[in-house]
Write a structure and sequence with these properties.
The structure holds two protein chains of two kinds. Helices cover 73% and strands 1% of the residues of chain A. In chain A, helix 2 runs parallel beside helix 5, helix 5 crosses helix 11 and helix 9 packs antiparallel against helix 10. Chain A has one domain. By secondary structure, chain A is mostly helical. In chain A, strands 1-2 form a two-stranded parallel sheet. Chain B has three domains: 234 residues, Dipeptide-binding Protein, domain 3; 128 residues, D-Maltodextrin-Binding Protein, domain 2 (3-Layer(aba) Sandwich); 145 residues, Dipeptide-binding Protein, Domain 1 (Dipeptide-binding Protein, domain 1, Alpha-Beta Complex). Chain B is built from 17 helices and 26 strands. In chain B, a hairpin with a 2-residue loop joins strand 12 and strand 13. In chain B, helix 5 runs antiparallel to helix 6. The chains are: A mainly alpha, B alpha+beta. At the A-B interface, helix 2, helix 3, helix 6 and helix 8 of A face helix 2, strand 3 and helix 13 of B. Chain A: It is found in: Membrane. Chain A: This is Inositol phosphorylceramide synthase. Chain A: InterPro entries: Aur1/Ipt1 (IPR026841), IPC_Synthase-Related (IPR052185), PAP2/HPO (IPR000326), PAP2/HPO_sf (IPR036938).
Chain lengths: 302, 569
């Protein structure tokens, strides 16, 4: 069952990614990537390794977090419900089969695509800073999110109001549960990592909007849809989503601080500016070559 | 001048006295309580009941919040630590005699399903003891009197008995018996429909099974069906006959209140050690006190407390024979034979107090009560193979099991392997069965899917409808005011519209009840007659009649200002 769902997921995300690479990245960047990929991999490798370690650690920690939380955590389900329970009920009352299908699709496929595509899109840039910022922000999301999970115990709307929030996703498409069960524990709803990672992508898409203007629009629409889907499907409260956006904001801001400051690759490369992404008529200004020397360029910041 | 001062002093002291009397009277505030329960992932009906009951209690003027806890955490809070106001949960139920351990005052301070309510009433204790020592003829009347007293006191409020539905693949196995469904016997004696079917695949909607296999754990065991396949008991209940039949015990005879039990010959545990009368005697001593008398505070195994307490003395006659003496009537005594027999060589070391580094562990917590018990070693028809947390537990047939002998005519394990897949929700469990990836759902389906299941089950899948002993209930913590007051509890019972809840929460797949026993044991005076015979609902269609509720509280001696129920703190 799990294998079937996974295969389907990989197929759909691969298809979406291929189409988007053609639409947003373009032939020229892909051509350059073929010649420059070694140096880009070198630049992004350290943070990619850190992210991999964090993800591995996360999969181990997921078993420990609930045990720890029940000893030291605050159980916030009731205060959250008391504060905003009506909103989720209202949102749920808007349910139609089409919306349910759309949000279920977004929650599973759209979300994974949203996280995977920018990695490739930023890899296709000569300037590796966006890529490194993205990977750093992912790492921060997972790390800070895990810390919050330890301290906050909260069940999502579907656990408190099973009949209103008719666990739309799992009852309409039971097979998805095999997938999400591998990743999520039911007490880990504050903050919404779905929202925070999606928002992270959207925030970074805003920073790189001059390079990938169309992607910025798509990323924003998808990120908003992911955030709404978590509430529509009864998985998260509004407060979780807001906390997720705050976490994304913090992660992106911190990633901007960290990247360049503690850059291993730059020390190894002796601060020599690499070949910039010139010759691309779509985005002449995309190579922030000033970034590579460690100083922050201002024009692309929020 | 002096007189003036004196009279001023007197006046002032009078004033201060009045002030003191006024201020030092404790305030009367709105009653604020919290209902503890489990999230929908653990039990969909409990949280729905809880929210409906909260609405009613709020309408009646209380301030009510809900506290959700993970299943094992919930059981620890309510059954072990007694840290709650009221709770809503599913009770495992059982023979009427299980009321003895549920409500006898000698168990108020113990952990487990024995008296989590802290209910203590000497007159009621007498009734419990009376039904326990009754023999077959007098028992029905004794049980009826006890239940009438129960209904008057409302130590907890029984709400309803759910109907249990399970799915089973009839194209792979014959011999599914709905009456057996809640017990391990259901998985023995099944006939594979064709050659080459060598594995029975269960789907189980509760991950706790993959986290802990300790037959004594009150937090991790519900029906205990799977641990019954791992551990044999002296006798097993046969649902058809309301009697028990010998299992590890070949035979038993009664002489003057002493039961002489003969064990089957050449029984071994899964690790090859022989099972002797010493192991049986050890088990009963160990379950009565898992510290084996080594500490000042005894630590009985909560799940089997009442059954083991019926045993006064055990003598080992020889390797294969024991003598039990009981302080109770025969029906209650035979219940004592259904506890799991543990291997002494594995469990004796577990009488040590449990340790957790850096934490002071409560007295009376032994290793035996908290161990995960992996791998479990019993003598039962299936032996443990491996487990993966939140994924599966697998077993293989124990070929030496006595049911495999040609001379024994008991249901036996017919397949070589048994695999329990964990799948947390009914909807996907049904899909797993319909897709022929599993043979049977081990736990009953949640009631919201039953309508669909009855309509759309494929041809090769059978629906097993089983009698249930479980019941949903609202438990009071009688250690705390005002829940210690039976008048208060009776008014609260009247705020629960059981018939409406059955329709609203269970889609009608349950039976509202006033007593915590099966239909056969319900006395006529307490039978459901369209309304609760003892505490009829104060309102209509789930909607509380606020003025009737206020009047009922006033009559019970509480203050109600029309909007708020006020109690002295």
């Amino acid at each position: 069952m799990l294998m079937r769902v996974l295969t389907q997921l990989v197929a759909v995300v691969a298809l979406l990614t291929l189409v988007s690479l053609a639409a947003f990245v373009g032939r020229y960047r892909l051509r350059d990537t073929r010649t420059e990929w070694r140096s880009r991999v070198r630049a992004a490798a350290p943070i990619a390794v850190v992210l991999a370690v964090v993800l591995l650690g996360n999969s181990v920690a997921r078993h420990l977090v609930p045990e720890l939380s029940w000893m030291i955590g605050w159980n916030l389900t009731w205060p959250i419900y008391d504060l905003e329970g009506q909103f989720i009920i209202w949102l749920q009352s808007q349910a139609t089969p089409t919306l349910t299908a759309y949000f279920s699709f977004v929650y599973i496929y759209g979300y994974v695509f949203l996280l995977v595509f920018p990695v490739l899109a930023y890899f296709a840039l000569s300037n590796t800073r966006p890529l490194r910022e993205l990977l750093t922000a992912y790492t921060l999301n997972y790390t800070l999110g895990l810390v919050l999970y330890v301290f906050v115990i909260a069940y999502g709307p579907r656990n408190l109001m099973p009949e209103l929030v008719d666990a739309l996703l799992y009852d309409t498409y039971p097979q998805y549960q095999h997938l999400t069960r591998q990743v999520n524990r039911n007490t880990n709803v504050f903050p919404s990592l779905h929202t925070s990672l999606a928002a992270t992508v959207a925030f970074l898409a805003y920073r790189t909007r001059t390079v990938y203007p169309k992607w910025f629009v798509v990323a924003t629409v998808l990120a908003v849809s992911v955030a709404v889907s978590t509430m529509y499907l009864g998985i998260h409260w509004l407060i979780d989503v807001l906390a997720g956006i705050a976490l994304a904001h913090a992660s992106v801001a911190l990633a901007g601080q960290f990247v360049g400051r503690w850059s291993l690759s730059e020390r190894l490369n002796g601060r020599v500016p690499a070949v910039s992404d010139t010759g691309d008529d779509n985005a002449p200004q995309e190579a922030h070559s000033s970034d590579r020397s460690g100083s922050h360029s201002a024009h692309n910041r929020e | 001048m002096l007189a003036g001062t004196a009279s001023a002093t007197v006046a002032a002291s009078g004033c201060i006295r009045q002030f003191r009397t006024t201020v030092n009277r404790d305030g009367i505030d709105q009653l604020s309580i919290s209902i503890t329960t489990v999230p929908a992932d653990s039990d969909r009906e409990s949280i729905q009941l809880t929210r409906a009951i909260r609405e009613s209690l709020e309408a009646a003027g209380m301030d009510v919040s809900i506290e959700m806890k993970a299943q094992e955490e919930f059981l620890r809070t309510v059954l072990v630590n007694h840290d709650f106001d009221v709770y809503v949960a599913n009770h495992p139920g059982g023979d009427p005699d299980s009321l003895y351990e549920s409500l006898h005052s000698q168990y108020v301070d113990e952990a487990g399903w024995q008296n989590p309510f802290g209910f203590a009433n000497l007159a009621f204790d007498d009734l419990l003891e009376g039904q326990r020592s009754a023999d077959d003829e007098d028992r029905e009347a004794a049980v009826a009197t006890t239940l009438e007293a129960f209904a008057a006191e409302q130590p907890f409020v029984p709400i309803c008995v759910p109907q249990e539905y399970r799915l089973a693949r009839t194209d792979r196995f014959d011999g599914w018996d709905a009456d057996l469904a809640p017990t391990a016997l259901a998985y023995l004696g099944l006939e594979p429909t064709e050659e080459g079917i060598e594995s029975l695949r269960l789907v189980h909607t509760d991950a706790r099974l993959s986290e802990n296999l300790n037959p004594l754990s009150v937090e991790y065991r519900d029906a205990g069906t799977i641990t019954e396949l791992l551990y044999d008991s002296l006798a097993v209940a046969v649902p058809h006959e309301e009697r028990i039949t010998g299992w590890l015990a070949d035979d038993w005879t009664w002489t003057d209140g002493t039961m002489s039990v003969e064990l089957r010959e050449d029984v071994t545990f899964h690790d090859g050690e022989r099972l002797t009368a010493e192991d049986v005697a050890f088990t009963y001593r160990f379950l009565a006190d898992t510290t084996l008398g080594e500490t000042d505070v005894p630590a009985p195994a909560p799940l089997f407390r009442g059954r083991v307490a019926a045993v006064d003395e055990i003598d080992v006659v020889d390797d294969g024979r024991l003598e039990f003496s009981f302080g109770v009537g025969e029906p209650a005594a035979e219940r004592a034979l259904s506890v799991p027999i543990l291997p002494e060589h594995v469990w004796r070391p577990r009488s040590e107090p449990a340790t957790a580094s850096g934490v002071r562990v409560a007295a009376g917590t032994t290793e035996a009560l908290v161990t995960g018990n992996v791998p479990p070693i019993g003598s039962g028809p299936f032996a443990f193979v491996d487990v993966e947390e939140r994924d599966h537990v697998s077993f293989e047939r124990f070929d030496e099991h006595f049911t495999r002998r040609t001379s024994v005519s008991l249901p036996e394990p017919t397949v070589e392997r048994l695999r329990v897949a964990i799948d947390p929700r009914s909807a996907s469990a049904i899909e797993v069965i319909n897709g022929n990836d599993a043979d049977v759902t081990n736990r009953p389906l949640e009631s919201y899917v039953v309508d669909d299941v009855l309509e759309t089950t494929p041809e090769d899948v059978g629906v097993l409808e089983s009698p249930s002993r479980r019941f949903y209930h609202l438990g009071f913590n009688a250690r705390k005011a005002p829940f210690s007051n039976p008048r208060f509890r009776r008014v609260v019972a009247g705020l629960i519209d059981k018939a409406w809840l059955v329709e609203d929460v269970f889609d009608g797949y349950a039976r509202p009840t006033a007593v915590p026993v099966t239909a056969e044991w319900t006395p006529e005076s307490l039978a459901w007659d369209g309304a609760d015979p003892e505490t009829p609902f104060l309102g209509t269609d789930g909607e509380v009649d606020v003025s009737a509720a206020a009047a009922a509280f006033e009559e019970a001696g509480f203050q109600h200002d029309g909007d708020h129920l006020r109690v002295r703190r």
